């Protein structure tokens, strides 16, 4: 059973978010409906939406080729409305606009996600990160997350990278004047730092999609992932996820991932669920590499207590006290206020995921795709952990303190 935690509920930071009363793990934006585009033109479902007073959001987004976004009039029963629209459009063609969180899974017992591993695993200050390492050809990698803190770009870990692309800024602070770090401020900076450290040849970019509280929605996320592909990303890191109800997965991101450029690879966090979870998206897609977390500080090494486990998980990597770049300021959401000086030891499948991305990038040879490299990496005879996939053991300095 998931352990209680004092960690605040990130969904509460966005007043638009609701949860499904029948499945408390499923969160979505209130009064929004997504409809799959019919290539043959407008359907009867569009006419019905207009009849009941729904307004289509006309967005200049590549996602609109696949999915349209509608805002329902206030007061309508979403369950009944969705049932009616699905009967008109067909199952799987109409759905809610799912909410995602950074490496999160809602825990029905206590109604809140765990974004920083499990109880007692709040992020901790750490010393400066050592030199970067890794080989391979120049691979274009995109981190779709909270962005990258502009101040972190002055750290040697990032400054010495000569092949960086665009880094959209991480908002970091709830109160900039007081240096108060937001609930998920710096999350994308940690992720990017792990990749920069262990795959020095990458052309690294950051796409900002998660709020400072670490949340976003399906349509907005799909647009961000498409921007990553449009920017030439071959390898995409998604240290985030959402739960769906089993009969209706997220429509917008599903469309973008289904139609992504050939040869590209998406790697996603498997979630900090502490239990098997069959419907954690996008990690549970068969064409996405799902990453669980190991505790490399334990003797012997073992799966992290917070990590999801599932038959669809492909790989696992150290995810406890992972050492990386971070931000400067004070974080107030742990057991006690904690001050940070640009480096962190953080836990979660969020931070196991970029190490797998770095391993793929650093083993991609000249003239081959990242898909070829990923296939080779995950089929090379390595230790396999049932329910957690192939174990990609990290170097001692991946964690702070260093693993034995």
- What is the global morphology? globular
Helix content: 10-25%
Strand count: 24
CATH architecture of the largest domain: 3-Layer(aba) Sandwich
Distance between the termini: 29 Å
Q: From the helix content, strand content and strand pairing, which structural class follows?
A: alpha/beta
Q: What's the CATH topology name of the largest domain?
A: Rossmann fold
CATH homologous superfamily designation of the largest domain: Peptidase S8/S53 domain
- Low-confidence spans: pLDDT under 50, at least 5 residues? 1-5, 104-113
Strand content: 25-35%
Give the helix tally. 8
Q: CATH first level of the largest domain: which class?
A: Alpha Beta
Q: Rg, please?
A: 20 Å
**Domains (count):** 2
Biggest β-sheet strands, sense, barrel: 9 strands, mixed
Mean pLDDT across all residues, rounded? 87
Notes on the structure:
The protein is of the alpha/beta class. The protein has 2 domains: 10-101, Alpha-Beta Plaits; 117-398, 3-Layer(aba) Sandwich (Rossmann fold). It has 8 helices and 24 strands. The chain has helices spanning 44-51, 78-89, 156-159, 187-198, 218-230, 251-258, 349-362, 370-379, and strands at 17-19, 27-36, 55-57, 67-71, 94-101, 106-107, 112-113, 124-125, 140-145, 173-175, 180-181, 203-208, 215-217, 235-238, 242-243, 265-269, 280-281, 289-295, 302-303, 315-318, 322-331, 338-346, 384-385, 389-391. It is globular, with a radius of gyration of 20 Å. Residues 1-5 and 104-113 have low confidence and may be disordered.
